Amino acid sequence: MKPVLLALLAWLLASPVWAPVAHAVDDPSEMLANPVLERRAEQIGDRLRCLVCQNESIEQSSAGLARDLRHIVRQKVTAGWTDRQVVAWMVARYGTFVELRPPFEAQTLLLWGAPVLALATGAAVVGIGWRARATAVPLPPLSDTERARLDRLTGP
Amino acid sequence: MIGRRQVLLGLPLAVAVGGGGISYVMLQRMERGTYDPHGVPNPLVGKPVPHFALPPLGAGPGLASAELHHPGRPVLVNFFASWCVPCVQEAPELMALHDRAVPIYGIAYKDQPDAALGFLERHGNPYLRVATDLPGRTAIDFGLYGVPETYFIDRGGIIRWRWAGALTPDVAHDQLAALMRTYA
Amino acid sequence: MIPELGHFAIALAVVLAAAQSVIPLWGAQRRDARMMQAAAPLAIGQLLALLVAAGALVWSAVTDDFSVLNIAENSSALKPLLYKITGTWGDHEGSILLWCLILGLCGGAVAAFGSRLPTSLRARVIGVLGLSSVGFLLFCLLASNPFTRLWPPPIDGQGMNPLLQDPGLAFHPPILYAGYVGFSVPFAFAIAALLEGRVDAAWGRWVRPWTLGAWCFLTCGIALGSWWAYYELGWGGFWFWDPVENASLMPWLTGTALLHSAIVVEKREALRVWTILLAIGTFSLSLSGTFMVRSGILNSVHSFANDPTRGVFILALLAVLIGGSLTLFAVRAPKLAEGGMFAPVSREGALVLNNILLCSICAVIITGTMYPLLADLFFGVKISVGPPYFEATVFPLAVPLFAAMAVGQMLPWKRASLGPALLKLWWVALLALAVGLFTAIGLKAAPFLAFAAATWLIAGAVADIAERLRLFRVRLADSARRLIGLRLGAIGAALAHAGLGVTIAGIAGMSLASHRIVAVRPGQTVPEGGYSWHLTGIVDGHGSNYVDRIATIVVSRDGRTVAVMRPSRRSFPLQQQTTTDVAIRTNGFRDLYAVLGDERNGQAVLRLHVNPLAPWIWFGALIMAFGGGLSLADRRLRVGAPARRTVALPAGASPGT
């Protein structure tokens, strides 16, 4: 029970937002003057895929399209849009593919359930092995002749 | 008599066989072209043309979405640029479509006007009208991620098809022709 | 002439590998001593042929033989000598040859160092290695031949991708492949054990050094790749959960589980089925990783030549190797007897938990990497599974693993109670809490968890050694005597666990990094991260195949100069590419990181980072590998099978007396 609680607590605490981020913004004039807004824009950008490069976010990529999208994100953040609205705007144009975090829906049930499923499978396999061993047929009791022989061999 | 233990121990093989089968299907689809891991989908297919109003390239009227909302006949919108190599490749095919009286509207994407006009002089101008999208925002509204891209818009102004990359004769003969027939 | 020699050598290697697989395996089946003895010479023969082939390719590269298609496509006359040599394995064909060479080296190593193994086991191991070799050599010969000629030869080659012309990346493939391919030996041991029908304590001991060796190389290979990304790509990032990176992490996770599982087989003859499955699974994952990278079905920064026809060949090869081994497993494993009993709370129990958690993390990474493909295939939708997914799912599984690591070391075998074990770690928990709180002041909860976990692991390793020395419970002299007698394996294990803690501390430190992007003129100073960065000037420079602009930045703190950094931007005229050369200065506890960007209107764009504890990420990996190496040196691992000693009878005596 305790390990389970510990894992749950860890899950609650370990917010993925703290992971180190890498940026390829190569022009200081791109950055917003307000550091709070700039930080928000960077966080949103880290969630959006750069569509012309393989597997990078728009914050990491130096492609022209990434620069344009970064600019749009900063414009909208300055205009007061929420994170969700900005991402929805991007998704409306490029589909859920642009979001690096897969959506929570029926089709991604297996994906998001993978950790729990994996643990459950592992526990089940161990449990089955355990039970197989525990319910192993016990040895039949010794007959009288066998017991006498055992006494002779082990001696007083 | 297959015991529970044997079933369990056969599971890894089952998983591997499943994985192998899926991988094989993937490879087949890649060769046939129905699976492209690097392609980007376009959610605008089936939706109306996004709102825009662009200035003209050179002289003439510009291009606005209002004209594409009810064109009355199927039209193509082609994004191009002078700095784009596949655009040169598809230029002959676009000219051939123009000769067959297929209406094509062109939008120069992030291109300096002189360079874009020079491109049209060198490779021919297949467009009824050409506009210029220097900041590239309209292209983003279309969900564009590179040039060239061609959009097929039906009579009611709904985007029905998007092709990313050079429009080759094969694509024009197979897919475009079918679209023309369906949405004529 | 030389390329033809190389081509012939590969063909010869195919024949030798085929003999190496058929003869010893059949000999072991029929208990024919002569056929089994043939295994070692055949393996060495195959290795020699492969050395000739590799030598021929390197020769062609060094002598600028552009009539060889591979050299023409990937090399150029102006390329520095080091990269001509190391570039031979930078492209697809060369890397497959490297793979085959290392597979040959594994066979040769078992032939040379496995003399203490029982004959039939050694024959079977070498035979299975031969089978793998045949497959990959055929692929090399038929589908990715590095010696294809090009006529007429061009005057100069197309040159190598500038991004790859780097000392770190030059050595990344051999070390990484030594890890990937090295796990073929435990795989061969597992197959051999299934064929023999016996998995016993001796097998557990014999398989361990090979597993350790491969694991050390894989650890170094992954760390080298990550370090290269950090200093070359210019963004300060070091892990992107890219499919190819994940493909290297998966066998590492199951390989770690295998390492620990083999200990239980050796000590208690338990967990046999699991260990065999892990041995087969780890090599299967390295093979699948190769397939995924080279077939093009994945969306990755690293993807090699995307050629679906090559993909089908490799898929067929995998079907034979993986399908065959798992079929053998399904048939033979049920016949293996049950192992030793143990209570749920015991060291075996802790290692079972370790296995479950490591394999779960591996399963999650597999799911996340393959899901975009599956979603496209079954649902027709294109979704992205990026870093946010992996961070949200892997970390919650890793935390209980870290917690169990220190506790597991304290538990005795067979049966234990949790209380006394936890009590021995009271000071470790307190220290972890203190360090976590200290670093978390004013920050979010996540760094607290990371620093606490790192401290828990490092102090836990110290506690493990202290426990073995019975420190403070017996006289100091007795503890010292125990220290001298302590076996290397125990020290190695503690070091490896501590190394992981150091890496976690490094990752936690990186999350506190600060950076700034500025446009400055020469002569200006910028403050960042507590330091003053002063740009003194930018000059032109050049190398053998590039020209560059070099900036000089003087970094100081409180008036004292701390470092002089020279980031640069290189232009490669042949490939028309520009790369940035990041300047990094480290003092072991923090990295200063400077990148030179565009220059405009007399101003240069500079990106300046201060990365606390960044070097610890890779120090930790080195410590882990060192710990593994130390364990490898443990004398107990060199015990072999008992050999029959023949005694000369005195003259005149008759046998039977």
What does this structure look like?
The complex is a heterotrimer of chains A (156), B (184) and C (657). By secondary structure, chain A is mainly α. Chain A has 7 helices and no strands. Chain A has helices spanning 2-13, 35-47, 64-78, 83-94, 109-112, 114-134, 144-154. The two termini of chain A are 48 Å apart. The relative contact order of chain A is 0.08. Mean pLDDT of chain A is 79; it is low at 10-23. Chain B is of the alpha/beta class. In chain B, a hairpin with an 8-residue loop joins strand 1 and strand 2. Chain C has 657 residues and is of the alpha+beta class. Chain C has 21 helices and 10 strands. In chain C, a hairpin with a 4-residue loop joins strand 3 and strand 4 (547-557). Chain C starts with a helix and ends in a 25-residue tail after the last helix. At the A-C interface, helix 1, helix 5 and helix 6 of A face helix 14, helix 15, helix 18 and strand 1 of C.
Short description, anyone?
The complex is a heterotrimer of chains A (156), B (184) and C (657). By secondary structure, chain B is of the alpha/beta class.
Mean pLDDT value of chain B: 88
Overall spatial form of chain B: elongated
Strand content of chain C: 5-15%
User: If you compute it from the alpha carbons, what radius of gyration of chain C comes out, rounded to the nearest whole angstrom?
Assistant: 27 Å
Please specify the SSE layout and strand pairing.
The complex is a heterotrimer of chains A (156), B (184) and C (657).
Chain A: H1 2-13, H2 35-47, H3 64-78, H4 83-94, H5 109-112, H6 114-134, H7 144-154
Helix pairs in contact in A: 2-3
Chain B: H1 4-32, E1 53-54, E2 63-64, H2 65-69, E3 75-80, H3 85-99, E4 104-109, H4 113-123, E5 129-133, H5 137-141, E6 149-153, E7 159-164, H6 169-182
Parallel strand pairs in B: 3-4, 4-5
Antiparallel strand pairs in B: 1-2, 3-6, 6-7
Chain C: H1 2-29, H2 33-37, H3 39-62, H4 69-74, H5 81-86, H6 92-113, H7 119-143, H8 167-182, H9 184-196, H10 201-232, H11 243-268, H12 272-295, H13 308-332, H14 347-378, H15 387-408, H16 418-424, H17 426-440, H18 445-468, H19 476-485, H20 488-510, E1 514-520, E2 525-528, E3 531-542, E4 547-557, E5 560-565, E6 568-572, E7 577-581, E8 583-586, E9 590-600, E10 603-612, H21 614-632
Antiparallel strand pairs in C: 1-10, 2-3, 3-4, 4-5, 4-6, 6-7, 8-9, 9-10
